[in-house]
Amino acid sequence: MKLLSKLSDWYFARKTLPHWGVLALDCFIVLFASFVGKYYELDDIGFTNSFRSIVIGALLTTLLYAISFALFHTYRGIIRYSSFIDLQRIAFATMVGALLTALLSFVDEYIPHCSVASPHGVVVTFLIATMLMWMERVIVKRMYDNFHTDNSVPVAIYGTKAGGISLAKSISSVKDKKYTLLAFISDGQEMKGITLFGKKIYINHPGIATKMKHLGVKTLLVSPLKTEMFRQNTEMVDEFLAAGIHIMMMPAAEEWDGTSELTHRNLREVDIEDLLPRDKIEVDMDAIGQLLQDKVILITGAAGSIGSEMVRQVALYRPSSMILIDQAETPMHDIRLMMARQFPYIPSHTIVSSIANKDHMEQIFSQFRPDYVFHAAAYKHVPMMEDNPGIAVQNNIYGTRVIADLAVKYGTRKFVMISTDKAVNPTNVMGCSKRICEIYCQSLNKAIQEGKVQGITQFVTTRFGNVLGSNGSVIPIFKEQIRKGGPITVTHPDIIRFFMLIPEACKLVLEAGTMGKGGEIFVFDMGAPVRIVDLAHRMIQLSGAEGIDIQFTGLREGEKLYEEVLSDKEQTKPTHNPKIMIATVREYDYEVACQNEERLLSASHSHDDMAIVKIMKEIVPEYKSKCSKYEALDK
After folding, report:
1. 299 three-state secondary structure
2. Assigned CATH class of 153-270
């Protein structure tokens, strides 16, 4: 074994064998096979007596094969990287060489001192030449694979169908050996005792991660066809994380169509977003396309986490133009560069302004007259708005009213407002401000339907929970705390939250906007809630860091232990999309809603926090403060 290793090191340390060297080696194999084929026809004495003519015939046979090799370029590949395609090319080349040799055998009697193999000998020559050339490449490749894996990562593949097989082929055929395949893992009991690509298939069971660790596996590659099953199997995920085995899979926002080329380069090391259990989200892309194509689209909060993703997804449907509004200058500059780079064919207008600037907003609506408005602008951080209720009123509530009223005035077809689960039974200023926004939009829609307000705008509200990776969410904060060596701070050991990926949330917003007829509050099925402390533990395991503690800091002002999607008095109605439901909520009269808005706006300029929140509680009776100075108002 040591001798083979030394020979391998000597050979592979050199540059690749030149093309003429590969051709010479293949020709030598054919020459040898020709002698064997002729010997197959004759006995020892006949072979010896005709040796001179046999040599000439073998040389001519080799020349014919060499011509075929040149036609099929069999010698141009690098032997150590040979693939099935290379073996197939060799088979075609030797087949043509055999046919040419068979034709030569009919005229060899006219060539002096030449003896070519008979048809039987031609077949023997063809078979031996093909097998030896195959063996030559397989042996060299296997030696390279076996003796040059020092820098490669030993991996197992979870999945034995199309996705897993594609990954295995990719690993074995790549020139720069990054991974060494040690095993497959399958959920099917029928695969027990079977090997694939020469590697054993292990049946998935509790303790499989320990088995893989003992086998030497450092990384698990998850087939795209197994992604959902793996994500839902939290015990398996935790087991591999606890074993210190890295996990690589398709990014959470991407999918494999099952037919396009798949390589290990399509996978990346998982982030926490990839491992949270959730159902696959399906949306009606055609209906969304018909809604948005060739339309003027206005998006507020376009530089935020949700707003920027809305910009990207809306742009895919080729609207006639996009008006993008946000008051954050640098992020808006990034959006402008992104649009110029990715969607240069869509006229886009990036406008730095506040939605509460009524004069500027009127000028924008008057100039562009948007067909559809996606309203994502809002101050959303609970502790900040708890300390600044007047600003929450002026930006969230009054700003929404400005955009909603202008949408009606300038003939916008549909207004989609992005709300939050914190608007349900609110315990903080931010959640209550969004509930008041919902009330105003719904009452305005009702007034239009009843003819009290002249307009055609349909108002639709969408409610969902936390989005993974958004600005200020726990995941970026935890990552930064881990990078600094800890500790990770969690407010309470029992706190739970619903989570959804930003792209998934935006897809549902678009579909809800498509199906909405006006007046609905759409609620998204956020899946199972996640304990924040479990999230923290997983992120520590994923990082590979040691000695990072978790500290509990206590609930922040206005913070709940858990978020609700519907209030106690609300019910839901299903839609054709099982992930989207319609909440039936208490309706407000439009005139009352307007009076409430005026009272709040007037109070906001006083910056008397208690007076402002007192009015908010009067408008939304279910608003009960938690861990906040405003609890005094609930007594």
Report:
1. strand
2. alpha beta
In contact, 417 and 441? CB cutoff 8 Å = yes
Burial class of residue 139 (count of CB atoms within 10 Å of its CB; 0-12, 13-18, 19+): exposed
Q: What is the pLDDT of residues 439-486, one digit of tens each?
A: 999 999 999 999 999 999 999 998 877 666 555 567 778 888 888 887
pLDDT of 114-136, one tens digit each?
656 566 667 777 787 778 776 77
Do the domains 285-467+501-530+563-630 and 153-270 match in fold? yes
CA atoms within 13 A on the CB side of 49: 5
Whole-number pLDDT of residue 14: 46
Tell me what pLDDT residue 119 has: 66
Q: Which residues contact 375 (CB under 8 A, 6 or more apart)?
A: 300, 301, 400, 403, 404, 415, 416, 417, 418
Contact 513, 460 (CB under 8 A): yes
Q: Which two tokens stand for residue 536?
A: 């923290």
CATH 3.40.50.720 fits 285-467+501-530+563-630, yes or no: yes
Q: Give pLDDT, residue 596.
A: 94
Domain ranges across the chain: 2-147, 153-270, 285-467+501-530+563-630
For residue 348, give every residue at least 6 positions away whose Cβ sits within 8 Å of its Cβ, in sequence order, or none: 315, 321, 322, 323, 324, 336, 339
> In which residue ranges of the chain is pLDDT below 50?
1, 4-14, 253, 256-259, 567-569
Coil vs helix vs strand at 386: helix
Three-state secondary structure string covering 25-79: HHHHHHHHHHHHHHHHHCCHHHHHHCHHHHHHHHHHHHHHHHHHHHHHCCCCCCH
Longest dimension (CA), the chain: 119
